[in-house]
Amino acid sequence: MDGSTIVARNEDGYAPINPIKYIVHEAKKQTNAVFKSVTTGVEVPLPDEAYHYTATPQADQSDGMWEESGINQYNVGMSSAETTATNARVLGYDPLVHDGIDEEAMLTLVLPYVKTAKEGAARLGKLLEKYGTGECNSIAFNDQNDVWLLETAGGHHWAAMRLPEDTYAIVPNQTVIQEVDADDTDNFLVASDLVEFVEKHHLNPDPESFNFREIFGTQSEADAYYNTPRTWYGQKLFNPEIDQEPTAQDMPMTRKPAKKLAIEDVERFLQSHYNGTKFDPFGTFASGTEKEQRQYRSIAMDRNQCSSILQIRNDVDSDHAGVQWIAMGFFAYSPYVPFFTNANDTPEDYKNTTADVSVDNVYWLEKTLSVLIEPKYHEYSDIIHAYLDGCQSYARQRVEQADEGVDAAKDVTQYLTDNNLQTAKEISSRTHKLFDTLVKKGLNLSKTTWEKGQNL
User: Fold this and answer.
1) Based on C-alpha coordinates, what's the Rg of the chain?
2) Which residues, 6+ apart, have CB-to-CB distance to 406 below 8 Å?
3) CATH number of 5-352, picked from 3.20.20.70, 3.40.50.300, 3.60.60.10, 3.30.70.1150
4) Which pairs count as long-range contacts for 283-289, CB under 8 Å and 24+ apart, including other chains?
5) At what angle do helices 377-405 and 362-373 cross, to 10 degrees?
6) Does the keyword field hold Membrane (predicted)?
7) CA 427 to chain centroid
8) Is-contact 259 241, C-beta < 8 A?
């Protein structure tokens, strides 16, 4: 609605617990620096200058940083990565490698060294070709003009696509890029030997086109129940006029939404759990059978860790154009807090995430709330939604106030840092009050409650 480009992601773990923190890396000079992965052992020489950037790494970095999402000083956003799959036929000719660049290293190796979204896709692609990867992933980039999506294929191949103007794409742990024109370098980037690789090994089922999804992706039964329903629901929200089945394998990658989208629309999707349908695991207004409620993999779920909306705005000056909206915990209950990324620090309760449970940091506070809320979701629903709406309105006010005052600031970076701290402090305060309210309400909902004067 305001001309922004947006990349948004939900980070899910393989289990409900994977503590995350939000940090800032300052720009630095680093002559002869080399990155070495603690998981694969790969060593990658680094450029001499690293740019300022934000990141959402794991609190425990014994198996890598896993920085996942952030925006750098040139207002380039990066989301890395979203796990996908390459089909077995392709893997027969280009197997995954286990001493290359995996998800845990991608953002660290790319975001501090690029000035545009396209440069981000190109740098990552070159690294994948040279060092290989042991995983299949999709990685998204945005700047003030463009959104690019890169998808890996096998150990060394990849393609990247610039999203058409005024469109959105939903990428649900599945290869989604469709038609690729390797000659159109304004809109596509590909591995240097991608076309020849496909021709040599007879991988294209339809030689009249070059459909990346059909050539490299999977269209399995698992996709139909784990992945495509999330695309179906997102397209149902943004294009309600379209009739599709949740398990359809032919849903288009991009669509033009029925109306322009705002941050709140993106949040609604990222926080959703098939709301209003019979597939809602919370069994709300359109409740289905127990089997139907568990039929499809929900978007908001207990494995949620950290959600980021990377917004690069075009209606303000570049020194405060980048905003990273962050929610932690179980996103159905967690507010999105806006952080201007031109900042030199993050709030203590966002960067002090511990391995053990502590409501003194936001990650564990939100995770603890989900333990309280889920068993009594319907009893708490009105309270939760009033809290989320109030936090979102407050967040909007804070962004507006910061925009209005930035021209008078002597030090813009410090001004925005202070603004971030104030915004986060207020929302954290509201979250602690919610915690207090829910604990007290929960105690009064106990099945063992015995009313005074109740007959024996």
Assistant:
1) 23
2) 317, 319, 320, 412, 415, 416
3) 3.60.60.10
4) 284/378
5) 150
6) no
7) 21
8) no
Asked if residues 279 and 296 have their Cβ atoms less than 8 Å apart, the reply is: yes
- Alpha carbon distance 142, 9 (integer Å): 13
d(CA 110, CA 72): 10
Q: Report residue 352 as tokens.
A: 């002090």
Tell me the backbone φ, ψ of residue 125, rounded to 5 degrees. -60, -45
Identity (one letter) of the amino acid at 229?
Answer: P
Q: Out of 10-24, 322-336, 386-400, 442-456, which region has the weakest mean confidence (pLDDT)?
A: 442-456
| Contact by Cβ (8 Å): 86, 217 | yes
Distance CA 351, CA 47 (A): 27
Average pLDDT score over residue span 145-154: 98
Kind and range of the H or E element at 159? strand 157-162
456 has a pLDDT exceeding 90: no
Q: Grade residue 454 by pLDDT with cuts at 50, 70 and 90.
A: low
| The pair of three-digit structure tokens given for residue 197, joined into one six-digit string | 């690789």
DSSP state of 58: B
pLDDT digits (tens, 9 = 90+) for 70-94: 999 999 999 999 999 999 999 999 9
Q: What is the DSSP letter of 164?
A: P
Hey, which residues does 132 pair with through a beta bridge?
none
Is the Cβ–Cβ distance between 299 and 170 less than 8 Å? no
In this structure, the chain runs to a length of 456
Side-chain-side CA neighbours of 121 within 13 Å: the count stands at 30
User: Helix (H, G, I), strand (E, B), or coil: what is residue 370?
Assistant: helix
pTM above 0.70, yes or no: yes
Q: Tokens at residue 64, please?
A: 């890598």
Would you give the distance in Å from CA 124 to the centre of its chain?
A: 18
Nearest Cα to Cα of residue 59 among 357, 307, 411, 405: 357
**CB of 146 within 8 A of CB of 84?**
no
